[in-house]
Amino acid sequence: MKLIKNICCIGAGYVGGPTMAVIAKNNPHINVTIVDINADRIAAWNDEDLSKLPIYEPGLADIVKETRGKNLFFSTDIDTAIDTSEMIFISVNTPTKTYGKGKGMAADLKYIELCARNIADVAKTDKIVVEKSTLPVRTAEAIKSILHNTGNHVKFDILSNPEFLAEGTAVEDLLSPDRVLIGGESEEAIESLANIYRSWVSPEKILKTNLWSSELSKLTANAFLAQRISSINAISELCELTEANINEVAKAIGMDSRIGSKFLKASVGFGGSCFQKDILNLVYIARSYNLHAVADYWEQVIIMNDHQKRRFSDRLIKTLYNTVSGKKIGFLGWAFKKDTNDTRESAAIYVADHLVSEQAHIAVYDPKVSAVKVQTDLNYLNSRSEEDNLKHVVTATNPYDALKDAHAVAIMTEWDEFKTYDWHKIYTHMKKPAFIFDGRNILDKHTMETIGFEYYAIGQ
Ligand code: NAD
Ligand code: UGA
Fold it and tell me: Of all protein residues, whose CA lies closest to atom 18 belonging to ligand 2?
């Protein structure tokens, strides 16, 4: 087993940053350098003021404070970090392709290929290259081909080590993972990586597989998790018509130990950078092997999720007497889940876009999302001009301003603080009848109705 003294991680994002910080914390004898082409992001990681880190994750700032400048470094000098490291993690983004073959379905691997070429160009000594990004099954083959054709006689071992952290609980997930998965061909390289994790993860949680099982397990894990949400959301629609209550149904089925209680929270629809992209990718891979029944099966998870988001805005419009034109709707939350500043694929974006198409005026309050981000997210959809988005969607710096004179509140993210607001005061300052559409089922129906609200939740 090769002892690793220097690690380089390419990609200082939601995975690269927290993952490497936790590796550095638990391996003080290893120097960890995270590099990125985005100089602003690296500058933010190096900011003296820890509240300016580019990623908000509970507990992350403390670990960065403890390790940064000691054995954790952030840099834009990618070549030097590759050159001086024995192990290189690739943790760059793998978004859904927006062009060419596989557009809207396949994963765009151009960033991965650029990393492989960068490593191939720079490496002068043997390297272990670790796929940390989520990749289609058999991507390691392409990476191997690029690396092994450099002609510079450097030996490359490729490992797949997918990340299972969830945003908002990244540090917790990294410190106590359910498992660490390492796929590879070289037992020696696998051991070198396993040894790093053994600094804080018990050996029985470190699972070793072949490369392809590891790559496919990551896509499959996300597909299974998302499938549970679409399943419970499908039942939530039936609940709304039958007086069954989705919270009660979820509890009742979750107590069956074969089903389990996690990931059964009905919602306005799942968001985040990965579920949709990874399932689309799985569907694309299945179709490319002519497995159409398999592809159709998984595609339905996405179709159901789109339906759930649309259903939420349709219900809001219908309840507000079939028109939201000129009406103010206060949004609580914009992030795709609580405890993160990430908004990628957040249901809030799609619901807002639909309501603005119906000429609603939206005022957003999210504890961690900036006004600029809200506009960027809306503009990305290309539904109307940037000026029109600015005219129709404003961002408030406190919740009470966002909800003042609103016809309805839409709860889009399950931030804990929303439950503690002065809902009497909010009611007083809203237009009547005052409606709440709780897309996260976080408020108590009876309490809200007692205050005077007309309260609508998912599956109730
Ligand atoms: P991200 O967009 O937050 O970060 C990726 C970073 O890579 C960016 O800062 C980008 O500038 C940088 N980058 C891109 N190409 C580069 C290059 N050639 N050289 C140097 N830097 C480059 O993405 P993320 O959310 O951290 O996701 C990374 C990967 O991890 C994806 O494959 C994703 O599917 C997977 N993943 C994400 C999560 C999550 O919760 N976000 C969890 C598990 C796995
Ligand atoms: C998810 C997986 O949980 C991670 O294991 C995985 O590593 C990661 O994707 C990834 O590959 O990127 P993440 O998207 O960060 O993590 O967050 P989740 O907690 O899974 O939530 C995803 C979405 O589903 C959120 O919008 C959340 O609000 C929603 N959700 C989650 C529900 O609507 N109901 C639930 O019961 C659980």
Answer: 166
